[in-house]
Amino acid sequence: MFIYKNNFYWLAVIFIIFIISFYFFFIGERIYYFSDVYAYLSYAENLYNYGYIYDITTIPSTAPKTTQNGITLVFTFLRFFTEDMVIRVKIVIVLLTINLFFIFFILYKIGEILRLDMITLKLFVVFLVISLSFYGYYITPINDGFYASLFLFSIYIILRIIDEDKNDSKKYWIFLFLLTITIPIFRLQGMIELIASIIVFTLIQKNYKKALISFLFIPFSFVSVWIINYFLINDISGITEISKNSIFYSYGSINNSLNKFLFEVVPEMFLSPQLDLFKYYLSPEIKLFFSISLLVFTGYVFFKSYIDRNPKMFFLILIVIGNYCVLFIFNVIIERYIFINMPLMLLIILYYMKNYYNRYLIFVILIYSFFNFVEILKIHNLMFKNKLVPSIEFIKENYKDYNLISSNPRGFYFYFNKPSIEDINLIDKNIMTIMIGDDNLKEKIITKFTNDKLTFNIQELPLSWGQFGYKTYEITFINEKSQNEN
Predict the structure, then answer these.
(1) DSSP secondary structure letter of residue 33
(2) Read out DSSP for 94-122?
(3) Helix H or strand E segment including 433
(4) Nearest partner of 78 among 109, 113, 48, 122, judged by Cα
(5) Is the predicted pLDDT of residue 280 greater than 70, yes or no?
(6) What is the pLDDT of residues 156-183, one digit of tens each?
(7) Residues 24-65: pLDDT tens digits?
(8) Which of 12, 38, 275, 475 could form a disulfide with 410 if both were Cys (CB 3.0 to 4.6 A apart)?
(9) Ramachandran assignment for 314, one of left (phi > 0), alpha (psi -120 to 50 degrees), beta (any other)
């Protein structure tokens, strides 16, 4: 990979990626502001101790709500080497930082297959490197980063198969098979590229042997997910419940989903939500115009690539359209799930522009991204100004055996390696209770204790929880014997 004409360029790319990642995830305290990460850590802990996946961030524990547990397996593997959750998170962050470089390199190689010129592609990679959404989405230790690299690699492999004149390109098919059984463990939508390849091989290349092989790979994708579910998940009630959010159960939500898609997801995915210009000065009409224009261009590429019998471009635009469809099928309209569409669409746009003009386009995008980069750095400094570590260390040092009640069970499970009590009736009244949360939680808990005719003392502790704004309370229950002695 590194035997390349311009090693200095790629070394600089790697260096910048590591500097940005180190700043956000190690110098800053971004690891203390995750959410889904902590649930996956609890899944891994229960899998390591008891052999099945369960959410133990709360008492009582709850069934997992996803079949996509690739990152759970990664955390479980690391659990054999260290019990410290912070260390495990940091190890995965380092792995995902390396993985991010691989994502950028594969996108570069896809651009080479599309025969974009080297200068445009190098500027394109620089744009990717300073687009901080990649770091937020693909270095945060959840499924997305590993999924993105595997998904892009499968796209690259299929493009090579499309380019291959011979039908016996065994090494590419072997790679694709291995990716086929791995990608869905991280994200189910990883089967889109197989469906797109079947369409391309059938309609454009008329190569039915290739189409048949791709078709036969699809069952293996389902089998790999089924194996994880069958052997590692013994309670599918959470998955069953979350599956009811799909469009097949929620026909009435199509209008709301479409509005969110047009006014939030598409413009945010391409223009970045953090930029002040986007947040405060882009009107709903401009956002809608941008989204409609991009979708019209997507339709144009779809029909043009089909009419021109351009298999590579038809394949890529099918991937983009397929990702959009996934959002509506599962009725989860979040740009993070299909953010990979952004660089793929940019490559498609650059492909249809002449070399002279696409360099100007990528240069304009670079300037825009640079200002966005600076803006996000400012926001980051404000967000992480209040540190959480001192408060976490204070609780760990001064309280050994206590009940925990919190407004953020996942977060405080990570901070203290302790689940939050959701069913207040399960509180052990013989030990102290630490309550961390907002005023609504305080009012709810005090009302509950009062209605149960419990006698207790409550004292606020002077601790700060950063942007959460939570308050900390120490609650001590007074039993009848203590009252009589008093």
Answers:
(1) G
(2) HHHHHHHHHHHHHHHHHHHHTT--HHHHH
(3) strand 432-437
(4) 48
(5) no
(6) 999 999 987 655 578 899 999 999 999 9
(7) 888 877 788 788 999 999 999 999 999 999 999 999 999 998
(8) 38
(9) alpha
Q: Letter for the amino acid at 123?
A: L
**Strand-pair category, 432-437 with 402-406:** parallel
Planar angle of CA 352, 138, 20, nearest 5 degrees: 95
Name residue, tokens 């190690």: 26
Annotate 51-90 with DSSP letters as a single string.
SS--B-SEES-B----S--HHHHHHHHHHTT---HHHHHH
CB contact set of 183 (below 8 Å; sequence gap of 6+): 147, 150, 151, 154, 190, 191, 221
Token pair of 440 as six digits: 């609504």
Evaluated on CA atoms 202, 206, 207, 209, the torsion sign reads positive
The CA distance from 129 to 127, in Å, is: 5
Residue 75 gets the label, from left (phi > 0), alpha (psi -120 to 50) or beta, of: alpha
Residue in the block written with tokens 């099945």? 52
Q: Which residues of 162-180 are buried (b: 16+ CB within 10 A; e: fewer)?
A: beeeeeebeebbebbeebb
Cα–Cα distance between 6 and 144 in angstroms, integer? Answer: 29
